[in-house]
Design brief:
- Strand 6, helix 7 and strand 7 form a beta-alpha-beta unit.
- The protein has one domain: TIM Barrel (Alpha-Beta Barrel).
- The two termini are 37 Å apart.
- 35% of the residues lie in helices and 16% in strands.
- The relative contact order is 0.17.
- It has 13 helices and 13 strands.
- The protein is an alpha/beta fold.
- Belongs to the metallo-dependent hydrolases superfamily. DHOase family. Class II DHOase subfamily.
């Protein structure tokens, strides 16, 4: 089954143009500074750049799974990233500090020899999580955040939260005291809400009231997909509310799900949105704002679980993410802002030191493999079989 989405197609990945009417409209609505002439000059400079040395990035939203799938995908993330916030939605979910410590040990055991990759663990928030568990998590030194999945919102979220303002409020108050960030999958699960509106409605009905009620709570709205999310992030003080952004939501719009037939390897949650939302997110991340940082949401599934009558949500991008982020920033004339997005804004938000090692992105064409094979099957990566222009290399 041939997928997928060609980055060479003009509609598949529309290039940001600093003078387009759409861009002008977004600039006005978002109040994001952008000088069209300066942007055009930056694009010209970016097209001549052949090599970019930068601080080694971190991935602030990563699914590593477990078992043989963990062994298959971990080398890709460990090669390109210094650290990663590891998602807790396993079966069973990682709901306690003891489970998080054990999961971390299982990751470290299968790291490639000599790798310095550091998995930063998270807890899966439930209606039954206790304030005492948050204290234990902070004392552990290995748990760095708590993940909010509305029950039923995405993969393995059936044990998620059903009553955030009732059952979870004492836990959130303790997170404020412990300076423990809340990572949010920002979608409502009400079946009466259109799937393309679930992020917007979540912001209006859950996230805005939550931040107003607990203004000192550090919140990361993960994998944002809409102009509504950008407006929300921009409306709060820098340092308390931030967002991660994925390659897929920067490069693909909802047409990518259907062009040439149903494309299961472009299906993720939150689902891809209209082009105007994609453009808004590009403008936000390439503006230089410190509120946005890299979070791939790389989510591997065995190929048969994607190409079936009820396919799983998730895009595997760990092996191509840095190349794709560079593509986005180059087309926006903002390669000078790429390092902050990939390597500075995340650790600064979490209060962690920036990485001391370096990585180099070279202007060198390379072909993305069609699949990656492991003991239980195959994984299809994002932009499978396509040629990309930026190649990450060790310094």
């Amino acid at each position: 089954m041939r997928a997928y989405y060609s980055p060479s197609q003009s509609l598949a990945s529309p290039t940001y143009h600093p003078r387009s009417p759409l861009s002008s409209l977004l600039l006005q609505s978002l109040s994001l500074p952008r000088n069209p002439n300066r942007a055009a000059r930056a694009i010209a400079r970016s097209s001549k750049m052949e090599e970019l040395a930068m601080t080694k990035p971190d991935d602030w939203h990563l699914h590593l799974r477990d078992g043989d799938l963990l062994q298959a995908v971990l080398p890709h993330s460990a090669k390109h990233f210094g650290r990663a916030i590891v998602m807790p939605n396993l079966k069973p979910p990682i709901t306690t500090t003891t489970m998080a410590v054990a999961y971390r040990e299982s990751i470290l055991k299968v790291l490639p020899p000599g790798s310095g990759f550091d998995p930063l663990m998270t807890l899966y928030l439930t209606d039954n999580t206790s304030a005492e568990e948050i204290k234990l998590a902070r004392m552990s030194g290995v748990v760095f955040a708590v993940k909010l999945y509305p029950a039923g919102a995405t993969t393995n979220s059936q044990d998620g939260v059903t009553d955030i303002f009732g059952k979870c409020l004492p836990v959130l108050e303790e997170m404020v005291e412990q300076n423990m960030p809340l990572l949010v999958h920002g979608e409502v699960t009400d079946p009466d809400v259109d799937i393309f509106d679930r992020e917007k409605v979540f912001i209006e009905t859950i996230l805005t009231p939550l931040v107003q009620r607990l203004p000192r709570l550090k919140v990361v709205m993960e994998h944002i997909t809409t102009i509504d999310a950008v407006r929300f992030i921009e409306s709060y003080n820098e340092g308390n509310v931030a967002a991660t952004v994925t390659p897929q939501h920067l490069l693909l719009n909802r047409n990518s799900l259907f062009r040439g037939g149903l494309q299961p390897h472009n299906y993720c949650l939150p689902v891809l949105k209209r082009e105007i939302h994609r453009q808004a997110i590009i403008l936000a991340v390439t503006s230089g704002s410190r509120r946005y940082f890299l979070g791939t949401d790389s989510a591997p599934h065995e190929r048969k679980r994607k190409e079936c009558t009820c396919g799983c949500a998730g895009i595997y991008n760990a092996s191509v993410a840095l190349s794709l982020y560079a593509k986005v920033f180059e087309e926006a004339g903002a390669l000078d802002k790429l390092e902050a997005f990939t390597s500075f804004n995340g650790p600064d938000f979490y209060g962690l030191p920036r990485n001391s090692s370096k990585i180099v992105l070279r202007k060198s064409q390379w072909k993305v493999p069609e699949t990656y094979t492991y003991s239980s099957g195959t994984i299809v990566p994002m932009f499978a079989g396509e040629t990309l222009s930026w190649l990450p290399c060790d310094n």
